[in-house]
């Protein structure tokens, strides 16, 4: 048999390659990946989403995990002026500069304040908004008012000292049980900007304009505020409620379950 390829063979091979490429492209077009913007909570950073982001990206989804000003790798930007409005701009700018559309916007814990503000700015770019064991602010709320009595006392003491930030509690407080995971979280958390506790928010109803709205409650974490959010949304049209039997840091504790759920809710 000749080792040389005839012109006819070459043309046939080329047609075959085009056919295979077309089939792959058609398959991808039939099931396009989603675009996720995952917003972390207090004391955390974009790093906390890495286990979930890896799982989502492995399934062809696009994932952005912005770190908010003054935290994580952006902790050098910490000042007393950093507040919720700063963090709203942080996230909104990622969506704007990356030209993102049909975004699945997820906010964990404190991140619920930030994504509520983002929804007011660009609801038309968000197809699904998910509050993951998160604050669900109304107009005029502040994080200080929504905090537990123990946290409120500690924050007020920090304000009295004019501290620019409030130290993170240990990972165990977030329901992280695995020792390795605890060590990882404790090594990464940074103080939360104090201005995020005191600013009274403007919430203008943008999140209600989004087609898909979900609140996920991590039942392994005791929080009267988050339980109150569930009660408030139970009879509200357009909201889906989901319960998980995990601690608060769901993205660290159960990344596989969370990644699967986020895809289903998107």
Describe this protein's structure.
The radius of gyration is 22 Å and the shape is globular. Helix 9 links the parallel strand 7 (212-218) and strand 8 (239-244). The protein has a single domain (33-265), classed as Alpha/Beta hydrolase fold, catalytic domain (Rossmann fold, 3-Layer(aba) Sandwich). The protein is 43% helix and 14% strand. The strands form two sheets. Strands 2-1-3-4-7-8 form a six-stranded parallel beta sheet, with helices on both faces. It has a two-stranded antiparallel sheet with strand order 5-6. The chain has helices at residues 7-30, 50-58, 84-97, 111-122, 143-146, 149-160, 179-188, 195-198, 224-233, 250-253, 255-265; strands at 35-39, 62-64, 103-108, 126-132, 165-166, 192-193, 212-218, 239-244. With 266 residues, it is of the alpha/beta class. The longest helix has 24 residues, at 7-30.
Give, in spatial order, the strands making up the sheet with the most strands.
2-1-3-4-7-8
Radius of gyration: 22 Å
Which runs of at least 5 residues are low in confidence (pLDDT < 50)?
1-31
What is the CATH architecture assignment? 3-Layer(aba) Sandwich
Which superfamily, in CATH terms, is the homologous superfamily? Alpha/Beta hydrolase fold, catalytic domain
The CATH topology turns out to be Rossmann fold
Q: What's the helix and strand layout?
A:
Blueprint: H1 7-30, E1 35-39, H2 50-58, E2 62-64, H3 84-97, E3 103-108, H4 111-122, E4 126-132, H5 143-146, H6 149-160, E5 165-166, H7 179-188, E6 192-193, H8 195-198, E7 212-218, H9 224-233, E8 239-244, H10 250-253, H11 255-265
Parallel strand pairs: 1-2, 1-3, 3-4, 4-7, 7-8
Antiparallel strand pairs: 5-6
Helix pairs in contact: 2-11, 3-4
């Amino acid at each position: 048999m000749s080792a040389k390829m005839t012109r006819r063979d070459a043309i046939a091979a080329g047609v075959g390659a085009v056919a295979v490429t077309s089939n792959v492209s058609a398959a991808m077009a039939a099931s396009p990946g989603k675009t996720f913007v995952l917003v972390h909570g207090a004391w955390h950073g974009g790093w906390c989403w890495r286990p979930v982001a890896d799982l989502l990206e492995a399934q062809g989804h696009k994932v952005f995990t912005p770190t908010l000003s003054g935290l994580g790798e952006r902790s050098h930007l910490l000042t007393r002026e950093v507040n919720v409005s700063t963090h709203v701009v942080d996230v909104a700018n990622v969506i704007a500069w990356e030209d993102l559309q049909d975004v699945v916007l997820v906010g964990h814990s404190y991140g619920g304040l930030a994504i509520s503000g983002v929804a007011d700015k660009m609801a038309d770019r968000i197809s699904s908004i998910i509050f993951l064991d998160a604050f669900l602010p109304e107009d005029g709320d502040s994080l200080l008012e929504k905090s537990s009595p123990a946290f409120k006392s500690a924050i007020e003491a920090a304000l009295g000292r004019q501290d620019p930030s409030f130290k993170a509690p240990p990972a165990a407080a977030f329901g992280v049980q695995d020792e390795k995971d605890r060590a990882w979280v404790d090594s990464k958390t940074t103080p939360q900007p104090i201005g995020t506790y005191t600013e009274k928010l403007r919430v203008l109803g943008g999140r209600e304009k989004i087609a898909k709205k979900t609140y996920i409650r991590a039942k392994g974490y005791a929080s009267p505020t988050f339980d109150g959010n569930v009660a408030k949304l139970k009879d509200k049209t357009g909201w889906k409620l989901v319960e998980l039997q995990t601690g608060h840091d769901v993205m660290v504790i159960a990344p596989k379950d969370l990644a699967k759920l986020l895809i289903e809710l998107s």
